[in-house]
Write a structure and sequence with these properties.
Elements: H1 2-15, E1 44-46, H2 59-74, E2 98-100, H3 103-113, E3 120-121, H4 136-142, E4 147-150, H5 156-164, E5 169-172, H6 190-194, H7 197-207, H8 212-236, E6 244-247, H9 253-259, E7 262-265, H10 277-287, E8 294-298, H11 304-313, E9 316-320, H12 331-345
Amino acid sequence: MIIIRVFAAGFRARLKARPAADSDRPVGRAGASTRPMPPGRPVRHVGATPARPAALTSPVARAAAPVLALGLALGLAGCGAPAGSGGPSGQAAGGPKVMASFYPLQWLTQRVAGDAVTVGSLTPKGAEPHDSELELSQVSALGQADLLVTLGGFQAAVDDAVRSNPPREVLDAAPLVQLEDGDPHFWLDPTRLAELAAPIAEALGRADPHGAQGYDSRAAAVAAELEDLDRELAEGLAGFQGAVLVTTHAAFRYFAGRYGLETVSVSGVDPEAEPSPARIADVAEQLADLPVKTIYFEDQASPKTAEVLAERLDLATGMLSPLENDASGDYPDAMRANLAELQSGLVAP
């Protein structure tokens, strides 16, 4: 595996010279296509698949293809990283091998699966999933998984890995949760996340028929828990209907829509994208006449943009979690922490 990592490092160095436009990826969905099936292994896909060619399309994936082939030829020795750490493991003794592409899906899948199954994550612990890359060990192990729960179009590296080394079944959340205008952050509305519990239980039941009844029961329980969380958030924000939520990252559309807030975002859905000075000036002009006292940045992103805008307008800054990774802790607790931040930082109309 040391040889493979050296090769991979060389490929990454060569890729730096490629034009940036070659790796641009749209977020969202543009229709359906059919992913390839390896000979002798049927693959089941639930939901539409990303509308991109079956061949590897990103420069990283194209350059890494020979390395992946070598990794597969050498076998999977040394590839068993701990589940939940971004490693490929996703199996308890005797149970199905289950993986999720990033934290909110991993959290929900684990709650439905129960203690008998360990759900692995393709996004390393604390990493930013938008543009994360996969280790060769993760791509290799993906082909041995019984189920992958993912969000097609959100992580290009995951989409390419599914095409090159597909698991037995892929559950794509994108066509099941009604994404709006290419915004992937549906999980910030607990009711939308709850909609995935039953499909996950059904997919787990296909992988492990003996455990189907338990999966169905736990899916109903976590859906009820999310509905209770939704009521708690709605009650906590009831006095802020129409309040203006200003964020540096356009991640809170679903949250704001669910709880009656208006949103102003400095940049787009990618938290690493830096807004131009002209954009910051435009937002500052827009906010000058609005009832706002706080500019929010993300817990895993730089506060620089929020600080620049807040200083210009003599406002405070605050921190919210988009829950894209597990750095903020348990999903319900992180959502409650967001609620507390908003209750102290929003201006009631």
